[in-house]
Write a structure and sequence with these properties.
heterodimer, A: alpha/beta, 5-stranded parallel beta sheet, two-stranded antiparallel sheet, 7 helices, globular, B: alpha+beta, Beta Polymerase, domain 2, Cytochrome-c3 Hydrogenase, chain B, 2 domains, 5-stranded mixed beta sheet, 18 helices, 42% helix, 18% strand, binds iron/sulfur cluster
């Protein structure tokens, strides 16, 4: 183990450069956030992930955000275990009827100010599962959504871009 | 051929056209006999599914991996319960009762399974009666007595994972009973398949469980091709296997890292996570999508491989790095302390439940759909079936380690010998060929022109099964899907008994069952 740790010290890091976020996108996010929230959140966000019915493809890519290539914590973004510690809910999947209450309760347990990010085509528009008796619809049919990251599943770099946008917006003003 | 299969075929009322294995209609007596034979261990239950007025049971012949489907007409809406004598069928029958309203006579557990009282409709694929969607209470099984307490976990878990509810009854730290309650991500997939085009259905099936999207698309394509008699070009067949092995490699690496991380050994997750990322990037470079979703389609594959250099470089690099991670796992006593003798699954239970994938193979069930029944191109490829007998978390880690090497081996063989040529045979052509009237048949005679196909493909998690009935225009009339998780989830309940609550995450991760795949 010691050898691997030592090697890690001298190897070139694999971590990606931070993706750039367009100014206009930032303005829009900042405007939605409001001054009070900005002051409170500062440059760090705690994220709670909620699978509201996904096929688990989106989860795999959210997981990838934590690997050394994307290393999401260097931006002040942290996945937390409880919604009570969270500023942001990242929600995936078409919301199933069976998960609706779980999602609503998670949202209720998250202290304000809070943001909802709908991750993936299912969360954005219910995807291929739209016509089912068992799905409610996109996340916005249940919760107010602040940011949509499309893709099936969205690549980690696209998610990183969206989340950095949130951080930047929260730091403005 | 096993004696059971011969007996079934001889006693069948009729033999229906289903490719490549027959579907036979049976009476209630033969249905019961088959159930008893399965319960006695003479064959394995591969799936149980319904239509509004019929029940189907897929039986796996343990000798050669051939499947036989038994169909029982259920005009009065009831059938002899399989779960009564063969517990692996319990949840399948509860789901059938929820969705179709059919009554499994004698079913020992009649609580609703997928139906949580939230759909606004009962028996959505049967009578479909509207009801209020305010939720049903769920009576959990009791485990009572002075020292016992319950711990309720989920459906929303403390991590980036799928939702489900676990109810632990514990005596201090020791788990006395775990009861799973699933169904939270039920999306009504069987209902969505009925009446769709082949393309639409393929996109839905690719999203049954995102981590095994390649295997699901592979199985769907094979079932459709079997039904329609489509011959797939050689190059497509080999590219499919290449994608399937990339998927297996990525998932096994992720799982090995994840299991170690659940023993608080984060270094392993960090390194395995990097290797997994390399596989996904190579997959994207080769096939244009990190998870290779929608890349396998009926008739062939959707994209050709133009440049294999990214995959080759990745495989080389993993061959260089991975042995050191294995060494690290092997030499870290504190880590092994958590995995050895933890969450042991007995060989007997693994066999009875037909546990697929690493879960079954780590408990001595030497089954891999790539070997039996087998499907191309695996018969032309050289790889070992990895098995172990010890059945604990450690065994499941080593099993995946062994399979990482086998998948690398397969990837290299495929790249070395990849045949040239077209990558798809248009399904439309096969459809119009089928429409040419058969010699001797009357042109206007009304006849059933639907056709059926069945396929089993080995995902990283175990065998996935797809059954399709397709009409002459290529529309899917009905589809039945079975994820390996269906038979693995109940085994987690058994494996965790007597372990400490704190070891649940590591046991759960070592099984890594799909919620989405089993809820559908
Ligand atoms: S967007 Fe795609 S990957 Fe994400 S949950 Fe939906 S189907 Fe799965």
């Amino acid at each position: 183990m010691r050898r691997m740790l030592l090697e890690g010290l001298f190897r070139r890091p694999v971590t990606e450069e931070a993706p750039a976020v367009a100014d206009a996108e930032l303005e829009e996010l900042a405007a939605r956030l409001g001054a009070v929230a900005r002051a409170r959140l500062g440059r760090s966000l705690s994220i709670r992930e909620v699978d509201a019915g996904s096929c688990n493809g989106c989860e795999l890519e959210i997981h990838a955000l934590n690997n050394s290539y994307y290393d999401v914590e260097r931006f002040g973004l942290r996945f937390v275990a409880s919604p009570r510690h969270a500023d942001v809910l990242m929600v995936t999947g078409p919301v199933t009827a069976n998960m609706r209450e779980g999602l609503e309760r998670t949202y209720a347990a998250t202290p304000a100010p809070k943001w909802v990010v709908a991750v993936g085509d299912c969360a954005a528009g219910c995807g291929v599962f739209r016509k089912s008796y068992a799905t409610i619809g996109s996340v916005s049919a249940v919760l107010p959504v602040d940011l949509v990251i499309p893709g099936c599943p969205p690549e980690p770099i696209a998610m990183l871009k969206g989340l950095i946008g949130l951080i930047e917006a929260s730091a403005r003003g | 051929m096993s004696t059971l299969r011969t007996a079934l075929l001889n006693a069948a009322l009729t033999v229906e056209e289903q490719k490549p294995w027959p579907r036979i209609t049976v009476d209630a007596d033969l249905w019961r006999q088959a159930t008893l034979a399965i319960a006695a261990g003479n064959a394995t239950l591969a799936h149980l599914w319904a239509e509004p007025r019929a029940m189907h049971m897929a039986v796996l012949d343990d000798d050669d991996g051939a499947l036989t489907v038994l169909t029982l007409a259920v005009p009065d809406g009831s059938f002899p319960s399989v779960g009564l004598t063969h517990p692996p069928a319990l949840r399948l029958e509860r789901a059938i009762a929820d969705l179709y309203g059919l009554v499994p006579v004698g079913l020992p557990d009649d609580r609703r399974w997928l139906d949580h009282g939230r759909w606004g409709v009962r028996e959505p694929l049967g009578a479909a009666t509207s009801v209020a969607a305010d939720g049903d209470a769920y009576p959990f099984l009791a485990a009572e007595g002075p020292p016992l307490h319950q711990i309720a976990v989920g459906p929303v878990h403390a991590g980036i994972i799928e939702p489900g509810h676990f109810r632990f009854s514990a005596n201090g730290e020791i788990i006395v009973r775990l009861e799973e309650r699933l169904g939270y991500v039920h999306k009504g997939i069987e209902g969505l398949l009925a009446g769709t085009t082949l393309d639409e259905a393929a996109r839905v099936v690719a999203r049954v469980s995102g981590d095994s999207t390649v295997a699901w698309s592979f199985a769907f394509a094979r079932a459709a091709e079997a039904a329609l008699g489509v011959a797939v070009p050689q190059r497509a067949i080999w590219l499919r296997a290449l994608m399937a092995e990339l998927e297996r490699l990525a998932n096994h690496l992720g799982d090995i890292g994840g299991i170690c991380n659940d023993a608080a050994f984060a270094l392993m997750l960090a390194h395995c996570g990097m290797l997994r990322e390399e596989v996904l990037r190579a997959s994207k470079a080769a096939f244009g999508h990190r998870l290779m979703m929608d890349r396998i389609v009926p008739g062939g594959v959707a994209v050709d491989l133009h440049d294999a250099s990214a995959i080759k470089a990745m495989a080389r690099h993993i061959r260089e790095r991975f042995p050191r991670l294995v060494e690290l796992y092997d030499n870290t006593a504190s880590l092994q302390n958590r995995t050895v003798t933890t969450g042991t699954l007995s060989a007997d239970l693994a066999r009875r439940f037909g546990a697929g994938g690493p879960v079954g193979r780590a408990s001595g069930r030497a089954f891999d759909a790539r070997k039996t029944p087998g499907y191309p191109p695996y018969g032309d490829l050289d790889f070992k079936l990895v098995t172990r007998q010890d059945g604990d978390v450690n065994a499941r880690v080593w099993l995946r380690i062994g399979e990482v090497y086998e998948s690398l081996e397969l990837i290299e063989q495929i790249l070395d010998r990849l045949p040239a040529g077209p990558i798809a045979h248009p399904v439309a052509a096969a459809l119009s060929e089928r429409r040419v009237p058969q010699a001797g048949g009357l042109a206007n005679e009304p006849h059933d022109t639907s056709t059926e196909g069945l396929a089993m493909v080995e995902s990283f998690r175990g065998d996935v099964l797809v059954w399709l009935r397709i009409d002459e225009d290529g529309r899917v009339l009905r589809g039945a899907l079975r994820d390996p998780s269906v038979f693995q989830w109940p085994l987690l309940e058994a494996a965790i008994e007597g372990n400490i609550v704190a070891d649940f995450p590591i046991c759960n991760k070592s099984f890594n069952c799909s919620y989405s795949g089993s809820d559908l």
